[in-house]
């Protein structure tokens, strides 16, 4: 199992331990089982809490259906449990729900629904939702195109360490979108995202090293890291 999924699930369980101490024991046990890959045990401990209406457990159950962990992958079940948690104000569930509507994953594609859930989650400080809301404003998807709004949401997410938002801020500073062009700021945001493994930022950083500073050794290193993740611009620039 990918480390990112394990970390995400562990964060879910930790949050519930603070929010609902009465459930902390079962969730701690579920966390241990999940990290070990024992999804059946994790599921057995989480489902009763979800059935009792515990929002974080509902989100966790939706997450498991979404990723096919301990259960067959099932978009309809993921959507059901995400919605139950989202309706209780769980920002992570709102963020996943919005992504399903934006991409048409398990539901008809619906920008208005995506935007609604993005806004709710972003208003609670969810960095993933803030970053995706920035994308919608940048691309004019479901809203009028607005670089200033995109920049605002990217910055909020980037300040929380969201690599996608950091990479997108780098692009905006490099191209002068909504802000004056600023190579130093572009490199700063690219570097933060690149250090977190974002392939787009790695490729962008490599290009700035090559074009702006003539540092082809650093450029090749970043292009190679980006290419290793299958990012096409990274592959193209590495192989020039």
Offer a concise description of the structure:
The protein contains 14 helices and no strands.
Oligomeric state of this protein: single chain
Low-pLDDT sequence parts: 17-22
**Helix content, binned percent:** over 70%
Biggest beta sheet attributes: none
Number of strands: 0
Using the alpha-carbon principal axes, give the shape: globular
Report, as a whole number of angstroms, the end-to-end distance. Answer: 35 Å
Rg from Cα:
20 Å
N to C succession of SSEs: HHHHHHHHHHHHHH
Helix tally equals 14
Mean pLDDT: 87
Helix-and-strand structural type: mainly alpha
Our estimate of the beta-strand percent is under 5%
What's the layout of helices and strands?
Elements: H1 3-19, H2 24-35, H3 39-51, H4 55-67, H5 75-86, H6 91-103, H7 111-123, H8 127-139, H9 147-158, H10 163-175, H11 183-195, H12 199-213, H13 216-228, H14 232-238
Textual characterization of the structure:
- The longest helix has 17 residues.
- Helix 8 packs antiparallel against helix 9, helix 10 packs antiparallel against helix 11 and helix 13 packs across helix 14.
- This protein has 14 helices and no strands.
- The protein is globular.
- By secondary structure, it is mainly alpha-helical.
